[in-house]
Amino acid sequence: MATKHLVLVAACFMLSLTAVSGLQAVNGRIKITIGTASGCGDTMRFITNQLSEAYSLYGQFLDIEFVPWGRTVWNDNGFTCQFLENDCWANRLHRCVLDRLKGNQDAQVHYMTCEFTSPYPAFGQGTYICAQAVGVNLIDIDHCVNNPGDELDVAARDASAAPMQAINFVPYIVFNDAIDTDLHFAALSRLSSMICFALSEDPATGISSCTI
């Protein structure tokens, strides 16, 4: 009886974790959209402390989308960014490189991890070191960076509008295209755990043994 009681308690505990998290996989996959800003310390910490680990563990089940925009304001006078000119320049670089890496998610994640790891090559040093590391054409990238105001900027601005209005935090984290402030803030500190429990609900993933 005691063993049966413990099993029931454990099962209820697992269910309660899922209910609290609220995150669910869709056909065995989870889409994560991350709104970033190149000079933002919270973005740096999230990518290096949360996303890197989660992707190394569960990357095969994840669809990652980065939106390098942050709190950028774009009007007739140009771009104004939260962390000043370096932030605007590096955000634009991120948009250009990510666009050239479409279809290669591993390279996109590797690139953004590089950019948000000290010494933060684009924002902190104004270099193309991380772009070079993922093998994009630097002449093409340089041309892209120096010709802003195109569809890449429009797409990032439009994609950021609703999440920033609702969450008002950088980085914003959106799962499966559904804005949820509670899930966003939970992901800042326990992304891997959230993903594990969500995937474990689908037996086809083979994921189990999750911890908080």
Automatic annotation (TrEMBL):
Keyword Signal listed: yes
A GO molecular-function annotation: oxidoreductase activity, acting on a sulfur group of donors, disulfide as acceptor
Record keyword Cell inner membrane present: no
Pfam families for this protein: GILT (PF03227)
Keyword terms of this UniProt record: Glycoprotein, Signal
Database matches in InterPro entries: Interferon-induced_GILT
Domain of life, per lineage: Eukaryota
Protein name (database record): PBP domain-containing protein
